[in-house]
Specification:
14 helices; binds iron/sulfur cluster; globular; alpha/beta; single chain; 377 residues; binds flavin-adenine dinucleotide; three-stranded antiparallel beta sheet
């Protein structure tokens, strides 16, 4: 038995890191999710690649050593990052100490997200901002796992896979930073969305993407896609990709059973500081959770580049739910995504109305004063 039989696979690539025969590749399956493929002719059935199923590898309570709010002192950085730029400033701090930093970048040519290594600040720039797609990270994970002086920023399942591999080979892990992670959607959704933008919004060629543009504020963030001549911009309320993604209609099945919501293998966890505490802040604030002593020491040194303050439990956003229920319409959404049906028609079939209806509803709601909306909530 090998990793191809794992029932709650999330495509983290950890099995490929652990296989002593190096016969595991990770590729996209027909549903648009990364999955391991094994050269069965060379598999010895040693079972090492099944470590993700047994609870092996150290995990820490998220924020067990303290939780901080952070916003970069540099306004340009906060504007370019998804939350407050705390994760970016941490990457810059580590780079300044000689670490190679591994993080995720979007490639307009392949329309995919991949982990790459940064050795200079220019290399860090494209890592800024969340890309809401599953990142191809195996090469970076391999490099990171073999270099205790490196740093790896990624999803909690990727980070847990690196710590597991380091513990299996009894080597010191790199600095590990993970993200509060909602989940990753199917690449079928992303490709359909790009076809929709080419058809309806006349975008051509390679497209640059910002999944978290803040021109309309941190809370009302927008998806911005451009071909250099034309630019598409819609808030997450109005954009079709976000409507499917944020309703969990086509997340990787592994995300619904994710074991890393309350616990983490990372030294630091970063996320948006959503909730009441910063509800009037539209620049953005990062939540940084110290999970290990190594992480706590790093966060203390961030006060030179960030407005950093320790936060008390009453101010923290509500803790993540353990399980993410599978919506009743997920199966039908996935079935339609596999067909040639255009995305706006799938929207109509699944959400019961044309895309313009939700936009109109949101525009009307926006006319109601903020204080009244809050009282109604
Ligand atoms: C798929 C995904 C889901 C998320 N879900 C939530 C959520 O539900 N709640 C919440 O509070 N925060 C969530 N986040 C985290 C949040 O969006 C910010 O990334 C985080 O707050 C750090 O932002 P920052 O401004 O401090 O720094 P930034 O510089 O903006 O941080 C970006 C960092 O994220 C990494 N990254 C970007 N895209 C990916 C990717 N696809 N895979 C792996 N690593 C990536 C980059 O390497 C970089 O280190 C999610 C992020 C991702 C990528
Ligand atoms: S969850 Fe990760 S380690 Fe486990 S089988 Fe899937 S890709 Fe491999
Ligand atoms: S069972 Fe062993 S040899 Fe086969 S894929 Fe897994 S780790 Fe590799
Ligand atoms: S929700 Fe969990 S399983 Fe899914 S990408 Fe995030 S960390 Fe991985």
């Amino acid at each position: 038995m090998n990793c191809t039989s794992v029932s709650h696979c999330s495509g983290c690539s950890g099995c490929a890191l652990l296989c002593p025969s190096d016969i595991v590749k990770v590729e996209e399956n027909a549903d648009g999710f990364l999955r391991p493929i094994v050269d069965e002719t060379r598999c010895t059935d040693c079972g090492r690649c099944l470590a993700c199923e047994s609870a092996s590898g150290s995990l820490y309570k998220t924020g067990g050593l303290g939780v901080f709010s952070a916003a970069s002192n540099d306004e340009g950085t906060t504007a370019a990052c998804s939350s407050g730029g705390g994760a970016y400033e941490l990457a810059r701090l580590l780079l300044g100490r000689g670490c190679v930093v591994h993080g995720a970048v979007y490639n307009p040519e392949s329309a995919c997200v991949k982990h790459v290594a940064a050795r200079t600040e220019d290399g860090l720039t494209p890592m800024r901002g969340s890309k809401y797609l599953q990142s191809r990270a195996l090469d970076a994970m391999r490099e990171g796992a073999s270099d205790p002086d490196a740093a790896f920023f990624g999803t909690p399942c990727q980070v847990a896979a690196i710590r597991r591999a380091c513990e299996a080979s009894v080597t010191k892990p790199p600095v590990l930073v993970d993200l509060i992670c909602h989940g990753v959607p199917s690449m079928l959704l992303w490709r359909k969305h790009l076809s929709y933008l080419r058809r309806k919004h006349k975008l051509r060629g390679d497209l640059t993407v910002n999944f978290r543009d803040k021109a309309k504020g941190w809370h009302d963030f927008s998806l911005v896609v451009s071909d250099g001549r034309r630019t598409y911009r819609k808030t997450h309320w109005d954009d079709l990709f976000f409507r499917f993604f944020l309703r969990d209609l086509c997340l990787d099945p592994g995300c619904h059973a994710c074991p890393y919501r309350a616990e983490s293998a990372a030294d630091v966890r970063a996320g948006d500081f959503w909730g009441k505490r910063f509800r009037d802040n539209e620049r953005g604030v990062t939540l940084l959770a110290a999970n290990t002593e190594r992480g706590l020491a790093l966060l203390r040194d961030l006060s030179e580049t960030c407005a950093l303050s320790p936060e008390d439990p009453p101010h923290l956003p509500p803790p993540p739910k353990d399980g993410l229920p599978v919506p009743g319409k997920r199966a039908m959404t996935m079935e339609l995504l596999r067909t040639d049906t255009p995305l706006e028609q799938i929207h109509h079939r699944i959400l019961g109305h044309a895309p313009a209806f939700t936009s109109l509803k949101h525009k009307v709601l926006k006319l109601v004063p903020k204080a009244v909306r809050r009282a109604l909530k």
